[in-house]
Amino acid sequence: MKVTISVIKADVGSLPGHSIAPKELLDVAREALDVAKEDHTLIDYYVTRCGDDIELIMTHNKGVGHKDIHGLAFRTFESITKIAQDLKLYGAGQDLLSHAFSGNLKGMGPGVAEMEFEERKSEPIVICMADKTEPAAYNLPLFKIFADPFNTAGLTIDPTMIDGFKFEVYDVKDQKKITLETPQEMYELLALIGTTGRYEIKSISKKNGEPAAAVSAEKLNMMAGRYVGKDDPVCIIRGQSGFPAVGEITEGFAFPHLVAGWMRGSHSGPLMPVGQKDANPTRFDGPPRVIALGFQLANGRLVGPVDLFADISFDLTREKAMEITDYMRRHGPFEPHRLPEGELEYTSLPHVIEKMKDRFKKI
Fold it and tell me: How much is the pTM?
């Protein structure tokens, strides 16, 4: 059967700082999606959080970008926002940039990752959710998972994968996109996605077009025209039988690479894979976290999840991440810990510089 999986997230309020979306908000979301399941808008759902972000994981048969699903998510986040405001939570409703829903969430603030496919005999799905970082944080792990044979053995020994994959890349500055194929255009792909402030992997597919991965590539600050928090992206990845094995997917996150985000969305720090119980970024509002939940799809029903990064074999990765955290923090306000000026154009820094502009003299 054809099934659509939609993962839609938003930051609509947190307990002190930007650390935890409280249980009261998740309960409201579960009630709303339970009604949608009863009236057959949804096949199944799972509500969770990563840090202060709430994620709605939904399955249905309406296709990608459907107004019923996006409208459901929008109304749910609006209801949650009202509770967050009553509780005087920090940043209540900050990801809802508009309150005039017009059929699709594009440009409205919430992050969206979706894909539609024919459900296989066995359909493993990994949902990655990150906090205190931006969509390009997935560039390096997704490249390793789908294009690096040193990470993914199946690229060399699985005849159903050896042809490689197609990468759809967004240029978020010029609002353009390009599709590149691996392994033929691997170097061209790396030339783009290494510039993480501009180029982001949006989706990955097999050469025949069958979807393999999808990322919420929305740049929240660019939509708002001001700093309103990092995008805290979500990602859907299909595993096994022609796709990377689940172990090859998790291995892509075993290196805590530097990503943009952290405090005020203005610093570089390590992306640390954690179990869900540790997705509570409090040190300097960080460091950036990523969790991964594994599900089996059964006629659209979500079976699971498995908390994939709760595995103790990621302890050394987390230890390395904390070493990197200490090292980066000692830079204080200096680059490369603080992001370059071009990456800070939507924060309050331009207002600080504006105050001093008349005091600059020609050299």
Answer: 0.94
